[in-house]
Amino acid sequence: MKNKIKLFTAAAASLALAQASQAADLTWDTTIAADGVITDGAGTWTTGAGNWNDTPVTPTSDGIVWADGDKAIFGGGTEGTAGTVTLGSDITTTAAVEAITFNTAFAGTYTLDTASFILTTGGVRVNAGSGAVLIESSDGGSLALNATNTWSITNGPLTVTSQITGAFGINKFGAGHMYLSNDNNSFTGVLNLNNGGNTYVSSIANSGVNSAAGAGDTIQIGNNADLFYTGSGDSTDRTLTVYNAGSTIYNNGTGALVFTGAFANTTANTATKTLTLRGSNTDTNEIQGAIIDSTVNSNPLNLTKTDDGTWKVSGDNTYTGTTNVTGGTLIAGSTSAFGSNSAVTVNNATLLQLDGNSNSIGSLAGAGTVENANAAAVVLSTGEDDTSTSFSGVIQDGAGGGALALTKLGTGVQTLSGANTYTGATTISEGTLQLGDGGTTGSLSTSSAITNNGTLAFNRSNTVTQGTDFSGSALTSGALEQNGSGTLVLNAANTYTGATTISAGTLQLGDGGTTGSLSTSSAITNAGTLAFNRSNTVTQGTDFSGSALTGIGGITQNGSGTLVLNQANTYTGTTTLAAGVLQADIADIAATSGALGNGGDITFTGGTLQYTANSAGTDYSSRITGSSAMSFDTNGQDVVLASSLLGNTGLTKLGAGQLTAQWDLSYNGITTVDEGTLVLVSSSESNKNSNSTGFQINNGSTLKIEKGVSGLSIDTDTFTFDSAGGGTLEVNGSQGLWRNNTVVTTGGLQNTLAGTAYLNMQNTRTAYYDIADGSDDFDLLVSVDHERGFIVKRGTGTLALTHIHNDLLDTNTITIEDGVFEVADAGRIKRGNFGGAVINDGVYRQNSTADQTLFGVVSGTGAIEQTGTGTLTLSGVNTYTGSTTVSAGTLVVADGGSINATSGITVSSAGTFDYNSSTALAAAISFTGTGNTLTGSGTIGTAVTITDGNILSVGNSPGTMNFAAGLALDAGSSTIAEIDGTAGAGVAGGHDFHNVTGALVYGGDLNLVLGSGILADGAYSWDLFDFGTETGTFASIALSGDYTGNLLDGDTDGIWDLVDGDNTWVFTETTGILGLTVVPEPNAYALLAGIFGLTFVMLRRRRA
After folding, report:
1. Residues 634-663: pLDDT tens digits?
2. How many CA atoms lie within 13 A of 172 on its CB side?
3. What is the pTM of this model?
């Protein structure tokens, strides 16, 4: 076990250790017997007692009596228990004790009860294993130094509570600890702490003032020794000297420790010399003297601040070693607190504080905090040692309100990767200042401009933005580097003149606004990506370097504006169009240069490639990669893309002019034409486009699809015209397979589906038309031929077919779900004879100059309109329930055909309704306006009124029409009856016959149209009208045809006659018979009387 040894002094006694010429090394031995054994124990140390053993220990060396000048050794026994050793009063001479050594006792604890004594040159030695040693005076005694002592403390600790006096100093040596706790120590020599171990002092006063550290004028610390201050606060003007290896000062007391005196560095060896300031005290501990390198050999001094406490260095410091803050706070108390070439490291959770003092350092590293914390503005200048360092901590103004500015000096690279918030200016006088060290942090002051006379670099893995991560003011000088894997965004109108280097990542001009530029006078070296994100136009040579873009890097257009590349660029990286417009304004030179560089991939992810007259002849198609939609603006030019557009998810054509592109099997996505003309041409045997998701034709533009080598095949696609309308879809080629495709209009002007191909639907496929109601008569005009398939019309708008063939099969159907299906111009369905069904829930409109027959059944709730100058013939047993309108040309219902009873028939605008079916017409007939005609030789089952201005012309030249519910001829109407041949009354085929069941109301004009061969001699009669009852009268009866220019005269009896030379005409309304006698004069009147008689007889016979 370790033993604690106490040395007590009594006030009445005096221990004087004086150097003697024959000093003996005596070991305390409490057994006087001559046994050759040292026994530890208690006793009294006097000159007359033989309780010492000489060295070497033998039986004959026991019982030695103490003599002044001897050296006392306590411990080292082999038996016994150490006790109290009381200093006798007879130990009084000035040379009483030369040295005291403490060794390990066998057991127990020694107590030396002493009074004042004098310790000469031997000093105190506390050897290994001795345990704790205490030298104290219970009644106020003191320890006088009669020479400069070396106190060697290997173990211990040694605690001295007695007052230490004398004109000499203490050389503390060894790894053991020493405690000086008497604040009235008055020794005036140097307190020299050497060769390890800690020395604890409770006070340090000015030179000449008693304190635990004595009253001398110098404290020396060297060779890794430590000074521990444990007091309540002191200020001392003593010289603080450091030397050789490490020197450490601790303040673990309760108050501040301030060194106001000079600082000396007497290091003589070449080992690294470090002054370390430590302790837990957070008051402002301070060294005011100038901290310097060695004055012996100029060996650099390092300064280290550690632990949680605070130290301030306030001298005109010139040391050139490093400055390391590994704990707590280090404060600059002057403008030269840190050596100008000192490499400063501020570790994590530590603080370097300038406190209103601008300072210049060699470099800055670490992860702690650098701040001003004073009302006065300061500048931290770093980089004078020309090295490259990284600081990941924070540079900030701190409390007090004074701004901290940063200046980069020297040729090295200063990297800042912390979230710096300082508000002062940033100046790069030389070298490189870099934000970030490959991570996501690193910033500069955002409130003050950057003056760059070197290089401003960026190395972050995320986005760093001008105005957010560093000053938003324009960069006006110096060079710029983007070194990180992230994105650097420059959004100010930068005018710097230095070089621009992109080593990695992305350098982006603009952040979605109208500003963001680079140097225009220096070239750009690009090994990453040069990106643009502005909402206006950014032009090469105006907003960034006008030199050709070189390097392995790529170009990306991210902004909603326009990027103009107008130089013979040779970069080989990818060109990415992510947004807005990239304008190529210079022609390519094959395998050499061009607006989009030399041979790199071109990828669309949302942007548009725009051509100019300078680049219209450049074909970029072979370089296009990726799977995103493509967008081209021909800008008034005609552009041809010769390579197939493979694997892309859509194509948009913008701008005036024409774009011709190769359309292949793997092309997919939506195709949009916003302006001008897009021509899609197949480069393979078939361009069956089953992967497409549709076509959009906007703003009156044109989409042309050209057949491939073996024809054209389009499957299940949708072609949509936007609400502006006016667009054109052309399908060209001798044959095109058109299978289950849909054409959609959404309003606006008339759109057109045209071309030279005929759309072959292969018997069972369908052409769908979804037509919205627009501003023109036709919403979609289709002039291309449909072949062998079904047609479905949807939407409220009008679909017009104008092709003269439209060769559908009779097994196909036309379905009108809504709106108008119109056959227009000279259009026909199946060359004018269509036998398929028409399912009509909208309007079927025949507006063609050609004739059309529908043999199939027209069904549904829709209407039929005949509006063209041609003839529409309905031959089927139709069941549609909508209205039937004839406003031009002729609507014919053929024999065997029919119209549903609910389908009222309106004839207007000089239209003709020709009903020839034996099936009684159950629908009502009405006339709108004048000039309309009812004709035919069928049976009409509803009452018919020929209103004023309209015409009844029955028969089929001639023929019979049956009126099953009566006939009324209004006063302003016209009736035309054809008389062809000489057959008599009732002979079929010789004249038109109006067979009226029920009432006949005469009115209007009757025009008798005579055929040839009627005027031979003889008598003739024609039964023109048959009826149940008759009323009214004609307004006139005229002869026309081969016998014209004469009117019959009427009378009140309903008899009309005309004698014209040899011809005598008589029409009797009561019989409906027209008679003619052709005889020479004067027998005419006799014959006329005969005719009257005949007429009367016939009338009687018909009425019987």
Report:
1. 999 999 998 887 666 788 999 999 999 887
2. 31
3. 0.72
